[in-house]
Design brief:
The chain is mainly alpha-helical and about 150 residues long. It has one domain: Winged helix-like DNA-binding domain superfamily/Winged helix DNA-binding domain (Arc Repressor Mutant, subunit A, Orthogonal Bundle), CATH 1.10.10.10. The protein has 6 helices and 2 strands. The chain has a two-stranded antiparallel sheet. α3 crosses α4. The longest helix has 21 residues. It is globular.
Length: about 150
C-alpha cells in the first residue's frame, strides 16, 4: 500500500493541507478560504461557478465559503452586467492583502516540499501530475459541478 499512487497522493495532500492550514488559521482563515482567496487573486471578478470549477469544490461548499467570507469582509458580490442573476465575486482590500499572504504561505510550503528535488525532476513530476489530473478528470460525471 505504501507504494500505491492513491496512498502516496492522500498522504502528501494531507501534509500539504496541514502545513498550509496551520499557517492560514493564524491569519483567521477557515478551511477552504485560502484556496478561494488564492484563486480570486488571479481571477478577481469571476462567478461562483468559476470558483467552484477552479477550486474543485461543489456548489453548496462554494456558497457557504463565499457567504462567510463576505460576512468577514474578504470579498463582495457585484451584480453581473450582462446577466443580473450571475454576480461577480471581487476581493476587498483586506481580501487582497490576505490573498497575497496566502500565496506567500503556499510558496513557502512548496519550497519546503521541493527541498532536495533537482529542477529537472520538478518539471517532470509536474508534467506527470498534470497528466494524472487530466486522466482523473475524464472520470468525472458529465454535468458534475466540481
Amino acid at each position: 500500500m505504501k507504494n500505491d499512487l492513491h496512498h502516496r497522493m492522500m498522504v502528501t495532500q494531507s501534509r500539504f493541507y496541514r502545513a498550509i492550514t496551520h499557517k492560514t488559521r493564524k491569519k483567521g482563515l477557515k478551511p477552504g478560504q485560502p484556496k478561494v482567496l488564492e484563486f480570486l487573486l488571479e481571477n478577481d471578478g469571476c462567478t461562483q461557478k468559476e470558483i467552484g470549477r477552479g477550486c474543485v469544490l461543489d456548489k453548496s461548499t462554494v456558497t457557504g465559503l463565499l457567504f462567510r467570507m463576505a460576512e468577514t469582509g474578504l470579498l463582495v458580490r457585484e451584480e453581473g452586467e450582462a446577466d443580473r442573476r450571475e454576480s461577480r465575486i471581487r476581493l476587498t482590500a483586506r481580501g487582497k492583502e490576505l490573498a497575497h499572504e496566502v500565496k506567500a504561505i503556499c510558496h513557502s510550503v512548496d519550497e519546503k516540499a521541493w527541498t532536495g528535488v533537482p529542477a529537472g525532476e520538478r518539471e517532470a513530476f509536474l508534467r506527470v501530475l498534470v497528466q494524472i489530473g487530466r486522466n482523473l478528470a475524464e472520470t468525472d460525471e458529465p454535468g458534475e459541478e466540481v
